[in-house]
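Database export, one record per block. Field names are fixed; values are copied verbatim from the stored entry.
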Amino acid sequence: GSGYSQTNYSSLQSGDTKNSYIQTDIYFDRWYFQGIVSRYSSETQTGSKKGWDDTLLNLFYKLLTNEYLSLNIGAGLMLPTYESGLENEELDYKTEIDFKYKIGKSNYFFGSYGHAWIKDRNLSLIRYKNTNSFNIGINHIQNSNASYSISYGNSDSIYKNVKAIQTLEISYSLDIDSNWFIGAYYDYGLSSSASGNSMGGYIGYYFN
């Protein structure tokens, strides 16, 4: 997938930022593994920069699954592949819980809550903090192949004394056939710490 943002959230600088990523999900019974590798290219007031974002490795367990409700819990590692130039990057950790609750035949509520332990070393002018994040939204299943959703997200910045990042997101996904699928999203920033506008799209493949 790929995306565009008006803020580089890693450095918290305003500027055109493009991102491309590869995500892999592997399912086994009630467990599933998720890995995300991404690169960025950013143009800010201090110049241009490009490189790797932190690499995400997550493991989830399907705690509950029935006709109306699904509940997952998970934990993950954030490998310090992002290079800030400050030589203070460390391995970070996180936990997450998410749910889906079906309403009628074609709608469901969804949401998640996560906590991250930020281990990057503090510097004289840069202080880090552990973060909390959550999102909640509603998804409408248009037909057997397509759905769209609207959601609200709230995430702490990893930097102390920075307001929480609040966004409103609209997304759409479409199954082309039994294997291929595509999707797109648009985020509108609701807080001064959020990008004014972000958008992106992706294409994926199911291995049966």
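Remark 1: DSSP finds no helices and 13 strands in the chain.
Remark 2: The radius of gyration is 18 Å.
End of record.
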